[in-house]
Amino acid sequence: MKINEEVVKLLIEQNKTVASAESCTGGLIAKLITDVSGSSAVFGYGIVSYSNEVKWEQLGVNRRTVEAYGAVSKQTAAEMACHARLNGKADIGVSSTGIAGPTGGSESKPNGTCFIGLSTKNKTLVKKISTFSDDRDYNRSIFAKKAFELIKEELND
Asked: What is the CATH number that goes with domain 3-156?
């Protein structure tokens, strides 16, 4: 069974819901959730907040957070996950913000850098992922997989 299928099965079994806020994955997390039959019972909200304006105006991320730490940061990922959960009225919010490549990287945030956020009513955590790759499709697939691993870990706690 694929990890997205495992996660949807666990969500259904636990009667929990998930919402997503994605930047660098461009909706891939939401796509992989909705690829699974029955996912409508556990997924009702996903936003692709690729631009900073959408992060601020539609998602609710604090402008000061992005200005102080950058769109690609632990702090922004945490706020994105929290707002996804709240806006989506879900049990779990998941987020991705990073640099998929092959352009856009810097010395401090190279291509293949991503922050995956997860928020529940009791906690918010962020994991940094580094693929060290310039391959956009590869990076996005790894980022999405890591998001599912984080959700699965939360559901198995």
From this structure: 3.90.950.20
